Amino acid sequence: MVEWTEEERSFIQEIFSKIKYEDVGPKSLCRALIVYPWTQRYFAHFGNLYNEDAIMGNPEVARHGAVVLHGLDAAVKNMDNIKSNYAELGELHSEKLHVDPDNFKLMADCITVVIATQMRASFTPAMQAAWYKFLSVVVSALSRQYH
Amino acid sequence: MSLTAKNKDTIKSFWAKAAPKAEEIGTDALSRMLVVYPQTKTYFSHWKDLSPGSAPVRKHGKTVMSGVAEAVSKIDDLTNGLLTLSELHAFQLRVDPANFKILSHNLLVVLAIQFPDDFTPEVHVAMDKFLSAVALALSEKYR
């Protein structure tokens, strides 16, 4: 089981209290689609992803970005049961969506960069470490169902 | 995934903005790397103080960033331009190349913190490609 210090728990709560899902979610997904364009393979049904402007103006991307970030809710609310709480979502990504789990890391890195642009210096090294650990646990939980 | 002409222009103009803060950027990126990815501390067991912003971290942050500056100036031929640095990393330092990715990520995080408005997705992808290309050039002499 993952052990969290009190400091790590409070860092994670602090980050989530400061970010807006409808803002960070869309920005993070846009970055993933632009910085790692092969991720667009999963979103052919979103219409125009032809260039950066198209991606950033695409309402389906924005909507889905918020959905993905809300996917972290289960983890924030119950940091001690992430593995079991993500079994279903993990199976969805593997069996139905057929997403290469390497993409989870890419998305995690993009979320981190967006948070860095917003929190700036208050996103301290110690906070970044807790955040990286948190996302790693979620990514690992999502990846467990692949076979 | 080679650098396009547009990528190179983006990198050079962003670097012009970032260069004055090079030491600060290098120090912060290294500090974060050592805290967030503690396995990287194994390369610095000879330092007295590995805490964020310590003297050895500052000094080394500056060294790393001068390497990045050199890479920008040799952006049209990184493999040949960084040959000496590659030999250093391959034969003397023997840094596992997986760590280049880790430092690159932390550099990007610091650039995002320092330049929240300038570090657009377009700049982000160009810098990520650039740092990957630099890492590749540094790995050239490994085997």
Structural commentary:
- The complex is a heterodimer of chains A (147) and B (143).
- Chain A is an all-alpha fold and 147 residues long.
- Chain A has a single domain, classed as Globins (Globin-like), CATH 1.10.490.
- Chain A is 69% helix and 0% strand.
- The longest helix of chain A is centred in the C-terminal third of the chain and has 19 residues, at 125-143.
- Chain A starts with 5 loop residues before the first helix and ends with a helix.
- Chain B is mostly helical and 143 residues long.
- Chain B has helices at residues 5-18, 22-36, 55-73, 78-81, 83-93, 98-114, 121-139.
- In chain B, helix 1 (5-18) crosses helix 7 (121-139) and helix 2 (22-36) packs across helix 3 (55-73).
- Chain B is globular, with a radius of gyration of 15 Å.
Task: Set down the secondary structure blueprint.
The complex is a heterodimer of chains A (147) and B (143).
Chain A: H1 6-18, H2 21-35, H3 52-57, H4 59-70, H5 73-77, H6 82-85, H7 87-96, H8 102-119, H9 125-143
Helix pairs in contact in A: 1-9, 2-4, 2-8, 8-9
Chain B: H1 5-18, H2 22-36, H3 55-73, H4 78-81, H5 83-93, H6 98-114, H7 121-139
Helix pairs in contact in B: 1-7, 2-3, 2-6, 6-7
